From TrEMBL:
InterPro entries: EF-hand-dom_pair (IPR011992), EF_Hand_1_Ca_BS (IPR018247), EF_hand_dom (IPR002048), Leu-rich_rpt (IPR001611), LRR-containing (IPR052394), LRR_dom_sf (IPR032675). The keyword Calcium applies. It comes from Potamilus streckersoni. Keywords: Calcium. One of its GO terms (molecular function) is calcium ion binding. Residues 312-347, 358-383 form the EF-hand domain. Pfam families: EF-hand_7, LRR_6. This is EF-hand domain-containing protein.
Amino acid sequence: MKHYGLGDKGTMAVAMALMVNRKINTVNMQGNNIGPGGMLYLEKMMCSNSNITELSLSDNNLGNFGATAIQSILTDNRTLSRLELAGVNFTDADAAYIAKVVQESPNLLYLDLSHNDFGDLSGDLFTEMIAENGALQELNLSWNKFRKTGAKKVARGLKDNAYLKVLNFAWNGIDDDGGIAFGKALKANEVLNTLDLTCTRIGPAGFMAIIESIGLNESLTTLKIGKNSIPEDAATAALQILRSYGTLRLETLDMTDVTFSSKFASDLESLREMHHNVNVMYGYSENYGKNKMNTQDILEEGMAALREYCTENGVSLVDLFSRFDTDNSMTITLEEFQEGLKDTDLPLSLYKMELFAQALDKDGDGEIDYSELVLYSKKWPWHTNGNSGVFKSSDL
């Protein structure tokens, strides 16, 4: 029940129904304007219903009250395996309620804490949570406020962890010091297979520290480190280091949106001749202007994807916009729009979703107005194939 704007009263009704329902095991209440009142009912329901194994409360205003409720839920409900708490206004002060109980949760395998306000002050709590956890396999801490101090603490926990397989730490400003700390952690860690450090302000020193650690790491298969300041000489040196390894566990090196010259492509071929399974992704080459999608192209592709989604699912563009617009302001932030697109599983890469959102923001105010979406819908008409529930250009 994502993006229905249920509020506390609507959430109460859902919670009461789930108190007696023992067949449902997945509950998604993302983006429903749930506050303390609604969270109180969900807490009571979750503490008594052990059949629910997956719970999403992302994009609700949970805050401190929600953090204490989550602590209670995880204490009493020992069957929960997946918990999504992205964008719920958690701060450093709330980490005390979350970290310890997650650490002791026996079956929690996936935890999403992205798009919150955790930072360096809560770093020690996350150190212990990650190091001592005996179940968690995937943790998303992206889009928080960790800097190099907090990154060092998270990396310290990763160094000692024996269960975590996927860590997303993207979009935190950890700089080279943070990158170096993760490099040290990878030398000791034996289980992590995916690390995402996209857009974390890492420079050549941090990048090289991580690359050099790969030779001592036997588990990492995917490293995402794009949108960072990686000069071509550092990237070329990285390829040379990877070539020097007799065996290479790494399968994907993602340097999205980092641009190199055509010479880098030939160096990359030399790496692939030695390690056939490695896939290196990077930004546009020196003819960047020729290859980069222009605004017209990305708008056309994005609107076509939206049109196809609406047609296949029998929904209107109005309804789709309303799902994203949880506060009924007739505007959506670029971040909210991108998150909404991800939920629809549109056939667009994350990078194209970002470009599409930016292109729709015609006045550059950081928000997409409904009027802006209408404007582009007129330019690329919506054909309904007989489905009257889909938004038509003539209705605009």
